[in-house]
């Protein structure tokens, strides 16, 4: 029967071999258990409380909180041997380690007692535990590329050697991006070809031309290009020819700033002043033009940086309007038909609006209407349409109170005793008054509000009513008036 069934005979031989191998393994394990030596427990070991359960059950019920630096023990899971080997803690660090183990298993009472014993023995035991099990190198992230710069492989880069050194400054960080290139996007699915990235293959000269066009259309969008990748961040921060074009241009730069009057108060062309006969013999020195002032300040006051000049030099903005919100209280009158023990108080709110134009004109408006009802109507066309109270049925009727005017920035002519850089920053505005014989004059200073914004605030310096007939002026009190804050209006586009 055995000869006729070879498969059964083969199964019996395999079974006998497995039994003999298992018997030899059990014998060697018994010999090892009699010669067990004490080992320091790893961080994740839970002592005698975990010895009665198999290792795989503990892993399912409670994930480890601390990761062992020494690896798993070979005798883990054999509760009787580990229980026999375990000894009472002696040092403060051993008490603290056992307290951590008890706390991990939920035995808070035992862990609290062990914590107290550990701190009585050494009040800095927690620092020793941290330095032993969690050294600084355990948290420090190692660089994936040992030579991240564009230098050759044979030249070691020491930028990553000091992992715990002082952090780099913004200038140093941007300078480290100089050797980087634009990296294309990774493939959407692993194993498939990456999507094309034409801008990554463009030379730097063409990228600069593209960035210049973007900056002319919208400087904010050009600045946000620095968030795309490190290479673009380097170009945005260091490409001076782009910032030079922005500064010298008339779109948002200083080419549109006026340091002398360009228009009459009512918006007409400026009349040429005839020189006096008494001063005709004296040589009149013409004032510096806009370009000359900009180039002089670029080298002397802004460290030859067009980027710094654009950020910090005072300038007005044309793609929005400046709004001043004024709130004040005044006493009211009690009703005569009722007996009351209190006096009513009225809270008055009104707004001042200023919109600047590139031709040197400005619109000034004082009204109680809120900005959402006003800012979209601050145009020259609607101002002319509602002059004299015309078209009262239109929603833009608020423009019937708008005043025409002109503006200019201050120079050394207004402040001859200070430097040319310090002389800038003030805005002079002249508008028509309540009648043809009066004119309003304002003096404001350009300031910055907030952390990142610049030139978005106008602070009052003075407000006068000038009489054209008598050539005298009276100053208004600015007790309730507040500063103007710039707000962008998308319907203005780049400004007019």
TrEMBL record:
GO biological process terms, semicolon-separated: SCF-dependent proteasomal ubiquitin-dependent protein catabolic process
Does Acyltransferase appear among the keywords?
A: no
Q: Where is the composition biased (Polar residues)?
A: 142-156
User: Which keywords does UniProt give here?
Assistant: Ubl conjugation pathway
Q: Identify the InterPro entries for this entry.
A: F-box-like_dom_sf (IPR036047), F-box_dom (IPR001810), Hrt3/FBXO9_C (IPR045464)
Location of the F-box domain: 196-246
Q: Which domain of life is it from?
A: Eukaryota
Give the start-end ranges of region Disordered: 1-90, 136-156
Assigned GO CC terms:
cytoplasm; SCF ubiquitin ligase complex
Q: This protein is called what?
A: F-box domain-containing protein
